[in-house]
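Sorry, any thoughts here?
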Amino acid sequence: MTAEVIVRTLVAALGVAVIFAALSSAIQTLVLPRSASDAFTRIVFMTVRRMFWLRIRQLPDYERRDRLMAFYAPVTLLLLVPSWLALVSIGFAGLFFAAGIESGIEALTISGSSLLTLGFARGDHWIHTLLSFGEATIGLVLVALLIAYLPTMYAAFSRREQAVTRLEVRAGAPPSAVVMMLRYHRLQRMEYLRELWVEWESWFAELEESHTSLAALVFFRSPKADHSWVSAAGAVLEAAALGASTLELERDVQMDLTIRAGYLALRRIAEFFGVPHNPEPSFPEDPISVTREEFEAAYDRMQAAGISLKPDREQAWLDFASWRVSYDAVLIALCSLTMAPVAPWSADRAPTYEVPRFSFRWRP
């Protein structure tokens, strides 16, 4: 076997590997109906995030940073298809070269012409024709996948944002668990809190499914700058934790179910992005970001408004902290990851997200 044959064989093998990597990335990102973390997609998202961050850190206020970040996920999604097409073109260039095309430049030209169905360059062998047909088919399929992917993603986005927008009526903007309790009490609707817990248990279940199988949704920002799916999730979890620990209400296990659905959803989204956290946190071994003083201030505010509270503050604090610790770390990390707007007991204590260097995991 001559050196030239060995080189062309190795180039062909490398080309097949590159094509397989591109197709595998596209399938995991756009087709596979389960959470599948893809290295190439992460690299594209991190690269674009780093480019956005170079500009964002120069902006003086949150409103302008939010307007710029609103373009982050859509721009990255649109760049994914050209990135996959580039890989496919490089991979097929290797196959054309292995099939007898004399130079790498000529092989890349024929590959690009075939991929984009331009037809201005072609080989002179039937193998070249088969490769051209195969590459053109793959290019059309990748574009069709993105076109089919977008309506599904925007439908999930719309359902998510409807609940986030409705929460403003109950909890203000940015959302606050204490404000929610005060409004329900003032309107004499405390007995209707169960409807909220049922609604948001379903919301958390859909959030977990959609934001791990359609991971770009995590970075799609709300239409209003002071809205965020992460802040909304935190406010509802906080309200349920206060209801279960501090309010003198008839025991309702639906609050427990909502909290469990919420922290499971946030943990699994965090795990998808490689956010480190303790899967079995407990208080006081694991601290929480809400201080005792903040809890006391919330207790005093609700008490002054006439809400019936449990008289044992110490036990109420311990019970609240035991609920909070189950979602505290992942909530703060996701606020940081998504650059959520400042909201009480969530994004107001989230550190600035540091874009990681290229790796196989997201690490805020």
